[in-house]
Amino acid sequence: MRAGVFKFLRKYAKARTRAARGSKKRQSIISYRSGRNIKPVPFQPGQNVLASLLTVLGAVGNGHYHLGSRKFRIEPGDFQGWEKLERQSLTLVLLIDVSKSTYPFISIFTEILNSLTGYFRLHQDRIGLISLSGHQAQVMNHPTHNYRVVTRNLMKLKVEGLTPLADGLFKALAMIRLERYRKPGSVNLAILLSDCYPEPLTHKFRDIFEEPAYRDSLRAAALFHKQKVSLLVINPSFRNTDQVKYLPGERLSISMAAESRGRLIKLFRYATLDTPFASRTYQPPSRGEINQILSGIEGMLGSRPRERDGLLPA
Q1: How is residue 172 annotated by DSSP?
Q2: Can you list the domains of the chain with their CATH numbers?
Q3: Which of 45, 109, 180, 308 is least enclosed, having the fewest CB within 10 Å?
Q4: Residue 68's pLDDT is what?
Q5: Please, which residues have CB within 8 angstroms of residue 210's CB and are 6 or more apart in sequence?
Q6: Rounded Cα distance, 265 and 284, in Å
Q7: Phi, psi of 150 (to 5 degrees)
Q8: Is the pTM of this model over 0.85?
């Protein structure tokens, strides 16, 4: 099974990488930090880079050079800057819930990232990794071009107890805000792989959605929409299609995708809700599930989903 999955991913990656080279989703954008110089403009701090030579030449042209003393008198109107153009890049933040239901997907998720490495390198994208385990989410990698380190840390993740979902979402937003400052004009995408059972719980509320862990997770998801950050939720443990019998994790993942105006990928792991827990086995992802995850990720790369897109069909 594993060899078959890897063969499929290699074949899929080659086709996708070639397609990415002609993709129109990435644009050339105006940037004041990096890129090639395209035209001189009046210098504005924080909006363009000072062009020293053009500034000096501008001062001469404006009569602000004294031949006798050989001194320049540069005035505010003489300052010139460069407007730069660069390829739009992506900051991708992975939030991985290290629980029993998601753990079988981590190795496959690593292979999926490896299959998209060519696409990421082509556009100079950066990837960060946050682990949802313990009492607080752990930042394993700040956004980096070293994709090998990220995948290596992914493979090191072990199943642990609590799932600090809200804390992970807030940390992802903080990480992306910092990246926006460093790289204005970049596209930002967070991918959450979780069964969406946040913890810790107080057990003081009849309605589990009144628990602070649930309320904070929804509040964080709403901030993704407010701050214009795309969120893709991948829930690998949906159990049925009956909307009346949705379990809390299923309901929360649906609500988070709606609050963030993002997308949800539902992966169905059980035929019915009546399957005894002891007999439940977490099978490796199928080819169809891998394809669904790949399509969902690539569908959001480089563009924010429109509000009318709603949830990704399961």
Answers
A1: H
A2: 2-27+88-309 (3.40.50.410), 30-86 (no CATH)
A3: 308
A4: 73
A5: none
A6: 17
A7: -65, -50
A8: no
